[in-house]
Amino acid sequence: EFKDELTQRICHVVEKYATDKEWHVDTIIQTLLVSSSFTSEETVCSMVALITSNPELQGYAAHKLYATLAANYTQPVLLQLSVWCVGEYGDLLISTPVPGDGGEENPDPSFVIDLLAGVLRSPVADMTTKEFTVNALMKLTTRFTSSPPAIQKIHKQLNVYSTSMNLELQQRACEYTSLLKLESISGGVLERMPAFTKKERNKNTLDDDASPSASYGGDAPAPAPAP
Predict the structure, then answer these.
(1) 188: pLDDT strictly greater than 60
(2) d(CA 132, CA 87)
(3) Contact 134, 161 (CB under 8 A)
(4) How far is residue 49's CA from residue 211's CA, in Å, rounded to a whole number?
């Protein structure tokens, strides 16, 4: 419990004092990696707000978060952020240079889909994470248009979950399958998420930073973006 509270405080301090957006992303990732049980809708919201509000950061964040997904990290917040970011910015993931000096190649779209399918099968991924993942697969139908094999795998996953025992996943899969048949509107529905803006915290003390409600200027944490 103390470790989770400390993780939340560190995330707040990083958000408040970061002067470099790439450093912000890297530090949050490293912080989450050492807190395996930490869960926080607020941290998800904060990172979504940072990434959606800074187009120049989106490709970098997609690569960095994808790397944690490929490494099979199962930290709950990190997993949700990774599948969300890959879904939103999959086109940047396969087209922009991979950060670093290693000369790494961009991931193959089919392999990306395989990773997301693995999240759906994972016993450690909670239902919210799986909902994020189904949504990410749907988004990638408009990001991976140059890869027919990847699109075929997405359709296969939607077909599998259209008969899922979980009603929420089943409903989403069926609705998305129907949406894909409506080409005239599916493109607009699956556009990138607009900038998600958080309200400023009311106070500047570290004690207030430790309160989840302080970040949103209200009495309760703001809800995470709908998967």
Answers:
(1) yes
(2) 9
(3) yes
(4) 18
If you compute the radius of gyration of the chain from its CA atoms, what whole number of angstroms results? Answer: 18
Range list of H helices, the chain:
2-17, 21-33, 41-52, 55-70, 76-88, 90-93, 109-121, 127-140, 148-161, 167-180, 183-189, 206-209
Which residue is listed with tokens 């988004």? 139
Crossing angle of the two packed helices 76-88 and 21-33, in degrees rounded to 10? 140
pLDDT digits (tens, 9 = 90+) for 39-96: 888 999 999 999 999 999 999 999 999 999 999 888 999 999 999 999 999 999 999 9
The 10 Å CB-count burial string (b at 16+, else e) for 111-134 is ebbebbbebbeeeebeebbbbbbb
Cα–Cα distance measured from residue 144 to residue 65, given in angstroms and rounded to the nearest whole number: 18
Domains and CATH numbers, the chain: 2-216 (1.25.10)
The model carries a pTM of 0.84
